[in-house]
Write a structure and sequence with these properties.
By secondary structure, the protein is an alpha+beta fold. The chain contains seven helices and 25 strands.
């Protein structure tokens, strides 16, 4: 196979080799309507860039049909255009064929946007660990020096494919993107600077969960330092844990990860690089701790820096659940240090990063053995967490979201036989939405499903909730 290259992409003006800025709009008009977004958010019926081009339909020439199933959401944040993509190839051919189908689909979607786009972060869900090498080779050949912050996670797609890809892309005249080193990408626009870190893994020679987590967290701190940031700036983490519920020296591996995370946060706070308590609230990043195949660990994170006066970070807790960091000792020697969600309130919109959520009420797992009820309860928990009533409970009236404000979700299903039931419920509750379903163990052996996502909604500080909190 000939290595793919981005040879026919529109060339950005005033662009350094490792950055992106001031992009001319595409000039061709061929449209593949199969590539129309599943959702458009925060832009009304039509969004126009400063050059007058509508974001809703112009693009370069592309194949009229591609083999992959895809869904994507287009989000317009002031002068910046973002796209969340979920791409799943057909379950035919070898992994290289499927990977190229997925890359071609992503390329087609992005070339149909009204501005030059760059993929900034991506997670590749793999059926087999040995497929990482050919996928990595193909992606590096395609992206070259503009490789996104990338995670290769062995969590088999539930549809039987060799892989599935979740990707985030950004573009717009106000966007400045830098690829600082492998696994570190920064995106700056309108006084905000986002930092994407991906693919953080301990040495293969390190085997215990605590030692793996310590080494990975130390590397995360190093990469943040390279980007001119610290743990104080982190709003979201992802922790993929091999053998998450397996016992290691009489202790569950997830509990050992929690112990290492607590020790790391304590160490960073002692160094002045993190403040756990701010304005009377516990400020822990939103997070997902989820299983993957093998016995390794993979970590990624998202950080935000800004001097904007109208920006507020708000850690959210669920009124239906005990805060994870307040769990009783019997759940973990040192409790999981994360918030149920982290909301970024800036200007007239809210972005809410939702942590991995499961069928837990207060601190107890509920609906044991019942995938239908666990899925319903998990979605109920998300709905309550992001609601306007809960934002008002947290002191921010006029903010909040509904399920329809979700831009994308990931659904982790423990048992393959539960996939069809879980998918039917998610499609009914969420409606049209980019979703990836992956097989993975959840952090408690009795839990059958976990869901995470991100919501975008408008913020109206003068609004008053129509009813009281639950």
């Amino acid at each position: 196979m000939i290595a793919p290259r981005n040879v026919d992409q529109a060339t950005p003006t005033n662009s350094p080799e490792t950055g992106l800025r001031s992009h001319p709009a595409p000039t061709h008009t061929a449209i593949c309507y199969r590539m129309e977004p599943t959702k458009r958010m925060l832009c009304g019926a039509e969004f126009k860039y400063p050059n007058g081009v509508c974001a809703a339909g112009n693009g370069n020439h592309m194949p009229p049909c591609l083999l992959c199933d895809q869904t994507h959401t287009a989000i317009n944040l002031e002068k910046v255009h973002r796209v969340a993509l979920m791409v799943t190839p057909q379950a035919t051919g070898d992994v290289t064929d499927q990977a190229w189908e997925a890359i071609s689909t992503i390329r087609a979607i992005l070339k149909q946007q009204a501005t030059q786009m760059a993929v900034t972060s991506q997670t590749i869900f793999l059926r087999r660990a040995e497929d990482e090498a050919p996928c990595r080779t193909l992606l590096q050949a395609y992206f070259r020096e503009r490789m996104p912050a990338t995670n290769f996670v062995v969590q088999p797609p539930c549809g039987g494919q060799a892989l599935a890809i979740e990707a985030w892309a950004v573009g717009g005249d106000d966007a400045e993107i830098q690829f600082l080193e492998p696994g570190i990408v920064t995106v700056a626009y309108d006084g905000l600077r986002w930092i994407h870190l991906g693919g953080i893994a301990p040495s293969p020679s390190v085997s215990t969960a605590y030692a793996q987590a310590k080494q990975a967290f130390d590397e995360m701190a190093r990469r943040l330092d390279v980007a001119g940031a610290s743990l104080q700036d982190v709003v979201r983490t992802w922790l993929y844990v091999g053998g998450i519920t397996e016992i290691e020296h009489d202790v569950e591996r997830y509990r050992e990860l929690n112990r290492a995370r607590t020790d790391f946060f304590t160490e960073q706070e002692a160094k002045g690089r993190m403040s756990v308590h701010r304005e009377g609230l516990a400020y822990y990043p939103a997070s997902t701790g989820i299983g993957m195949a093998g016995r390794g660990l993979l970590v990624s994170c998202l950080a935000l820096q800004s001097q904007r006066k109208d920006l507020r970070l708000l850690p959210l807790e669920n009124p239906l659940q005990t805060s994870a960091f307040q769990y009783a000792h019997r759940f973990s020697a040192k409790s999981p240090k994360f918030s149920r969600a982290m909301a970024v309130v800036v200007g007239d919109y809210v972005t809410t990063w939702i942590s991995g959520t499961a069928s837990i009420v207060n601190s107890e797992s509920v609906h044991l053995g019942d995938i239908e009820q666990q899925t319903e309860q998990t979605i109920d928990n998300i709905q309550n967490l992001i609601s306007r009533e809960n934002f008002e409970r947290h002191g921010v009236p006029g903010a909040g979201s509904e399920l329809r404000d979700l831009a994308k979700v990931r659904v982790y299903v423990k048992r393959p036989e539960d996939f069809a039931t879980c998918r039917a419920i998610c499609e009914r509750r969420f409606g049209p939405l980019p979703i990836i379903f992956a097989q993975a163990d959840v952090c408690r052996s009795e839990l059958l499903v976990e869901i995470e996502g991100v919501a975008f909604s408008r913020f109206n500080p003068t609004a008053v909730c129509s009813r009281g909190g639950a």
